């Protein structure tokens, strides 16, 4: 992985150098303001901001493990190094308490901090540019009425030379040109609401679209054809989806609201917190998001998802014959939840045959679920899977993944599974 | 102390006089709907079950039903004592506490005493180990029996030496000594007399000032084995030739598997047999893992609602957010937790019998503030960490069942009826299980094992339920609702108090085969017995609905609902959890309305001196007077109850911190004060109260069974989450009142109600939001807080 | 199939179905009581043992995954007569009610103590999050773990002091005030 990262970094640095040389990097600081009084914002505006912030999932990135909400500090691993989320509570010294509405809007749209420094696109301002003024004002009102927390930013740990922020100006010159959202004529209001939320605040493409060498999202026909998030594969939301049972607006709604819908795998990895946020968002907005995403895989006039998609398969006998050792590991480690007759299945949670993770080209999601488990938000009910790092070796985790692939998919076998498992484990040890 | 009129000498005697009797001396009219019964007459600690009749009413504790000394204590020639109790160890430390009691009154070292817990062939029948009665029933019996034995030993020694009995002393070492230095071991003295004599009521008890064992923190005798993998539990019993069984059922009560593939499973290697009896189905194997795999195979069958004989669970509908995918806390598998409205609707739709609990009338001034409020509790799982287990052996025409039931004597009666053996051919022996906190699956699994053992004579059967069977089939703690209406006069006195409680029976302890699942599944079935209320003063749904406070114009009614939409039975503290929550929440609501300090309002209405002292002790320990003011995030709350108005007194004060972004509530510190009479082991009392406080926090803040259309939807710890380490309080302190020599008062359940109310009161103090519906969850608090 | 398991330092050759979770072998074949069946789902931790030093769910670890790996159960830490460090600390704090979860608690805590010399309160709570207790003994369990940390620290100090001041013959004893577990 490392040499590849360096190659990426080098290419990026060259590109960005152009921008820096062009001298476009300078942005002025905006004057600080005294932190506005929390009761100076209309309650309806704050409430509106709360629901929009839930859809935007601000709290997820801007809150450290066990940390105060919105106080930042969470590590965001990227191919170019580790960023630490900033404190967006209205603390004047360490948060955004001294930011005017204009400064906030500039950050959200142009990726420039109040002091004029360029922000990394981990803050998805390429999406937030699409958001309407009034919604940004509501989010501002919401954030400025949070509890101020004094929490200085942690220094980022980026590969050379990307720690030099003015280079970001070049990146923006090339990739930051998204217009404000305009409704698509011929589509109904619900679809357009969904499109607005998905393309804008929801920034779904941030994970579900592929990125180019410079880390910018690919758009056009590549948009939503699948990406990577914190080492997990973010599956395609288009007709390229590998879900054994096609997604519909209803199943997407159930999934986004509760983390599962009975015929698709459960929300895991970085998708877990997204679903947790959406479970608290207005129902109509989540329905609109579901309608829009469903339309990505079923263009108007099209026949919906491709008919040649194989039906959900479960070839237990064949897999046991082909891989008795894998079958034994599965029977002892997995069957208590995932085999027919297990209470989890009786209770309507989805069988592995419907899990997209086992159909993807990359084994990342399957291996990460096995090794790291799936965790509902602390204290909440929801699908849970224990981590198997302590009980299984890399080879054994790989063996189980291979068995699952054989049993539940007719796609080509995964390769280099043990190596992939080792890398995931090493990542865990580092964190 | 504000505004409390002096009531003279009578007030000081309030602990001896019944409070009602005391009040009757004034202008108030008092009536009890049901004649109060001596609570010791109620078998099993007043929580149902069957038990022996009172034959010696003049004696104390369980000596009333079993007055013979040798039923309780035997002394061997070696001077060692064996003490028998009909109570059982549930993790509450009762073995150690009873040992301390026996050692103290026998005046010998605890290490020389062996304690035998409930065994239907060996020990007195003391009914259930429930209702925080063990110290009151068995502790009192053993204390007095031991005093009797020590008196007889001293008399015997005195006779031999020709001296006056009162000159013979004991010194804690199992020796009797004359003034002139002659000595005699207990074993030698005991060999010369029979202990098969009735206890006398006035055997002298040891002077508390000279206690050697009681009131000290004797390390619990059961703990070392539990820390080191010793054979500590029924689950660890391994008998020669033992087989492993699993019972096969649908996902939860009221369901049945349609066509389990018995033929395929019979052919599985290692499967010894299939046991079918009516709708009862079990698989038996040489090894446990084989039994589990066979069970899973059988469970592949589709299930349906059972129109037959099992207890029906019509299953209340109404998850928050409504069904699939709905609701913040929801899951696709059955919606979120039940909304309070749905619980209330499910209960009030059923026919109820109104049982008046308390009615007082008196002249008062006009009301200045009045509050009306409904409080609701969902169905709660016992949530034992170890699913229920039993071992049964049918051999030579007799059945032996090892059980961790709270009522081994009931198990013995249930099994006899179920398998058709005469009661003297069935022996039930208690062995410890995981904590049960009421009637979990223990009785059912014991009956299951016995049915299987009948089919496999000569081979011991070990049966443990699976995790989902414990959640799906155990009786839950009943969902409940109360409606309170109270008014406060301008002088800060409460002028009227109305308390109505709706509840199913909490007492469905099996006393016959119809009370267990295997009985309901038999052909023909033993019918599920009709639920009955437990009369006051113990009560069940009505427990602690009669406030200990002196309120004018108190009216309390129990709307007893016999038809059970969910299979329910006793859960630690029964109705006291919601009733105390309701009373103590209402007091704070009134205090807030009138801007009176919550502690002052309580003290102003409390005559019972020990209650006052407990509240004051907790308040002092907590620093109530100097507590921080609620500021939107931090807040403090307190609450009090005397369990059943008969047991231990307990006051709890909490400081909480609310995360306004998520609604999550953290307990920054908790202080509890408890008066349980003479504590046998103060550390044992602290352990119990600390545990009850943390457990009640879990129940009250985050628990509630979810229901899908046709089944219980809580089946594991992901669908029925409980408190984990990340959310336990920062600090808990328990202050045990010193009451030398005072009668034992049951302790184990005393903190459940006060903790629940203190939590609601602290949240209200912190945020101004009054949560009345359990669970007081983060989502509900966040919804009430809104975005700011 | 025949598997050889190394448990508390001793090798055991067993003829069992390779899918059998370790829990059933410990309890059924080897009569070790410490690990308990609680859920069979990796959600409660009552079955926790150490595998190669890490806390693992024995209910979800098939024996076929365990050849050549070091397994340690609560029986390997000490006995009632000669308790290990954590066992002694739990005894001193009377950190049990029903105790069904406790062997799992001790083994999970042992994995932390093996990895971190002096874990702080937040680390202890986060690490123990995996294991459930229903009696509400959490406060005592936390106290017991803190006590074990303190005892070990004291032991180290004693040990250092011992090597400086104590006569040679007493050093070993000073270094192990309470018997530390062997892997």
From TrEMBL, chain A:
The keyword Cell inner membrane belongs to this UniProt entry's keyword annotation: no
Compartmental location: Cell membrane
EC number(s) on file: 1.17.2.1
Keywords: Cell membrane, Heme, Iron, Membrane, Metal-binding, Oxidoreductase, Repeat, Signal
Pfam families tied to this protein: Cytochrom_C, Cytochrome_CBB3
Record domain Cytochrome c: where: 44-147, 189-297, 321-408
SUPFAM superfamilies with a match to the protein in the record: Cytochrome c (SSF46626)
GO molecular function, one term: oxidoreductase activity
Top-level taxon of the source organism: Bacteria
InterPro entries, sorted: Cyt_c-like_dom, Cyt_c-like_dom_sf, Cytochrome_c-type_DH, Membr-bd_ADH_cyt_c
Protein name as catalogued: Nicotinate dehydrogenase subunit B
Organism (species): Azospirillum picis
From TrEMBL, chain B:
Superkingdom of the source species: Bacteria
SUPFAM superfamilies from the UniProt entry: Molybdenum cofactor-binding domain
Domain Aldehyde oxidase/xanthine dehydrogenase a/b hammerhead: 228-316
Feature: compositional bias, Gly residues: 318-337
Residue ranges, annotated region (Disordered): 305-338
SMART domains in alphabetical order: Ald_Xan_dh_C (SM01008)
Name of this protein: CO/xanthine dehydrogenase Mo-binding subunit
Organism: Azospirillum picis
Automatic annotation (TrEMBL), chain C:
Sequence segments annotated as region (Disordered): 152-183
Compositional bias per record (Basic and acidic residues), positions renumbered to this chain: 152-164
InterPro entries tied to this protein: 2Fe-2S-bd, 2Fe-2S-bd_dom_sf, 2Fe-2S_ferredoxin-like_sf, 2Fe-2S_ferredoxin-type, 2Fe2S_fd_BS, Beta-grasp_dom_sf, Diverse_Oxidoreductases
Keywords: 2Fe-2S, Iron, Iron-sulfur, Metal-binding, Oxidoreductase
Pfam families: Fer2, Fer2_2
Span of domain 2Fe-2S ferredoxin-type: 1-77
Protein name, as recorded: Aerobic-type carbon monoxide dehydrogenase small subunit (CoxS/CutS family)
Annotated source species: Azospirillum picis
Native organism taxonomy: Bacteria, Pseudomonadati, Pseudomonadota, Alphaproteobacteria, Rhodospirillales
